[in-house]
Amino acid sequence: MRPTVAFLNRELIERIVAEGRDILCRMGIAIHNPAALKLLSDGGAVVDVSRHHVRFTSDLIDRALGSAPKGFKLYDVMGEEAVDLSGDRVNYTPGSAALNFLDGATGLMRRPTTADYIRYVRIVSGMPHIASQSTAFIPGDVHEKISDSYRLYLSLLHGEKPVVTGTFTIDSFEIMKDLQLAVRGSEAALKAKPLTVFSCCPTSPLKWSTVTSQNVIDCARYHIPVEFVAMPLSGFIAPVTLVGTLIQHTAETLSGIVLSQLANPGTPILYGGSPAIFDVRYETTPMGAVETEMIDCAYAEIGKYLGLPTQAYIALSDAKQLDAQAGLETSMGATLAALAGINNISGPGMLDFESCFSLEKLVVDNEICGMTLRMIQGIEPKGDFPSLGHFTELVREGHLLISKHTRRYRQEEIHLPGPVIDRANRSRWAEEGSKTLMERASAEINRLEAAYTPSRLPDDVKGELTRLMTAEARRYGMDKLPRESR
Amino acid sequence: MDLLANLSQSLQDGDDEKVAALTKEALAAGMSAKQILDNALISGMTVIGNRFKAHEIFLPDVLLSARAMYAGLELLKPLFLKDDIPSRGKVVVGTVQGDLHDIGKNLVSIMLKGAGYEVIDLGNDVPPERFVDTAVAQGAAIIGLSALLTTTMPVMSQVAALLKERGLTGRIKLIIGGAPVSDAYAREIGADAYGFDAVKAVEIVDRFLMRQ
Ligand code: B1M
Questions:
Q1: Which domains does chain A have, with CATH numbers?
Q2: How far is CA A170 from the centre of its chain?
Q3: What is the 8-class DSSP label of residue A84?
Q4: CB of B183 within 8 Å of any CB in chain A?
Q5: Which of A145, A172, A176 to probe by mutation at the B interface, max B CB count within 10 Å?
Q6: Is B55 on the interface with A (CB under 8 A)?
């Protein structure tokens, strides 16, 4: 049996969805984008262009829910299937777009560089429990205007795993799409084998900005999957109750789905989000709060009820360093998310309210993810019945270390994390240098980096990626990309 | 408790109805608008500000008290000569062009209003010219910019450049804030100050307008 967790019963889900739809149809939301308003108006919504205001119709919402795919797959740069975002399949991806980087060597937070990013791509390439790369942080050594696209470039050049990313502007979409076309070769190939997911955020409360609504439309035009990342904050820019926050999240997310499906019916989407409570004591948006994680799991239940694949920012922490808080918040989130069957779980590596990335944390989190992936395999009989034979053998031999049953099932039954999670006995731990978690994590980073093999993407494609990115950098007065980028 | 102390306490309790009633009572008892403003409303708000800075109370408490203060202030306003309408100064705030993150900016705006400043909040996605044009048209001495994205930080330097171009540097002070910006960045682009958080933003405005 696959273990699960549920926070909502069906009746409550139906009431929340009905309210969310009601907000869209009766009260309406603001969309600051003429192109989006036109699409919606042509689709039958009631649009007031001067007030940037839209009221949806029930039929429009139903049609969008009908055309949105129930699931989809991502393919790596070589075109091989890599991530299945459907059913209750669980995949982890690192947290994305951090402004800061926790330097493992000094323990200090600083702005990340190209070299840090490449190191990140290398280690994520070898992580068994992290299914995709994300554009995890923002190298500070290039012009700010390319800070979104440059990450994608580095990821596609050095790594093979598909990429969870997003643009910060309307303009950057063009280069970020061109980089993908360079990898795939044609629009049709990109459509057939999606390479990335773009995060697009409605602006809570109940609003879409020009930039992000345009991103939704642009992605749809090229069939690029979108994850909707609404961020209602309970008690601040959303009702304080978890149910109230869920109603708002439903309305905001459904509005995005309608927009994308009007722009191009059948465009893959993820029913996602990054809602949080608002901690009035510190004026922060804690991602590791238990209520935040409950909201995440609950909206994923709503997404599943609507028949859609899901995403959440949940396996992460608000701690400022790799400490016990980092571990506990991340594991609680990862565990709940895995039980909830969220398809794309964002967060590993992330600290400090989605604003600081740590490679050491990423390798720890990889092991947390591994354990949760084991957990959702559940408890199944494996050659256990009848059991008398095993126990006769046990009593006879005094152990089952080399029994046939053990040899057959040990590997699939017992997940052995490490080397970061420490399970040595004290004397062996001491003999091996009494290493702290930080030391073990940093050794693991070095091991993964040493084991990295360059992406198999053909050289001419890599050359084309660099040509495209260099041309983009030139638009902002940078004649060369940082030397280490290639 | 005397009337003004009672009024100040009601403001600190965030009780807007009581503040309005007591303000009327104080006026009926012959106290001047100035006396009520200084010795009850502003003094009450100062206590709230200090308690907030000391982390004894939180943002919603400040908001409730600010709302209560305005309940009193509205009754006093008609009694001031036009030029004397109490204003601690005007501040133009907004999130820069291309950026939609307005939560931090809203907090700054709320806190400045709570501290008695007149805030002209231009919202988010605001082009550089609008900041400067509005400050000039409204006679505001301070522009406060917020940015949360690395891609939109450069708009802050455009505002600084525009102030310089129009010979307003120094006359209109520029304060910047938001997760990706820093003290060093403020210095680099020639802004007058960097506000780490909303409380800091109020302190800076206090300093620039030389009030405490
Ligand atoms: C004038 O003087 C002053 C003085 C002090 C000032 C000041 C001005 N302004 C602020 N301060 C200071 O005082 C405030 C109170 O103490 C503080 O304000 P803050 O704003 O820092 O703090 C607030 C009280 C709480 N914090 C926040 O509100 C920001 C939290 C995070 C998680 C965040 C949020 C909430 C949102 N986001 Co966005 N978001 C993130 C943020 C991560 C983070 N930890 O910063 C960040 C900034 N976002 C990011 C991104 C990428 C994006 N977001 C986007 C959207 C959103 C939401 C709409 C979902 C939502 C905003 C809702 C809203 N109405 O504002 C998109 C933006 C599109 C655009 N063009 O703007 C989008 C581009 C995602 C996308 N692909 O669509 C990342 C930035 C990456 C980068 N390098 O620039 C990010 C670090 C998160 C991440 N890791 O992805 C101080 O900074």
A1: 10-57 (no CATH), 67-375 (3.20.20.480)
A2: 21
A3: E
A4: no
A5: A145
A6: yes
Q: How far is the CA of B9 from the centre of ligand 1 (A)?
A: 36
The answer for B 117-156 residues in CB contact with A (under 8 A) is: 124-125, 149-154
What are the backbone dihedrals phi and psi of residue A440, each rounded to the nearest 5 degrees, phi first?
-65, -40
Instruction: List pLDDT tens digits, range A439-451.
Output: 999 999 999 999 9
Give the SS3 label for residue A157.
helix
**pLDDT value of residue B212:** 40
Q: Which two tokens stand for residue A175?
A: 């280069």
Cα separation, A325 vs A464, in Å, equals 44
Rounded to 5°, angle at Cα A225 from A224 and A227: 140
Token pair 């004894």 is found at B56
For residue B139, the distance in angstroms to the closest alpha carbon of chain A comes to 29
Please give the domain boundaries of chain B with CATH numbers for all domains. 3-83 (1.10.1240.10), 90-210 (3.40.50.280)
The pair of structure tokens assigned to B210 is 């030389």
Element (H, E) at A83: strand A81-85
Share of chain A above pLDDT 90, in %: 98
DSSP A4: -
CA A414-A420-A425 angle, 5° bins: 70
Confidence of residue A4 (pLDDT cuts 50, 70, 90): very high
Whether this model's ipTM surpasses 0.85 comes out as: yes
Contact between A90 and A53 under an 8 Å Cβ cutoff? The reply is no
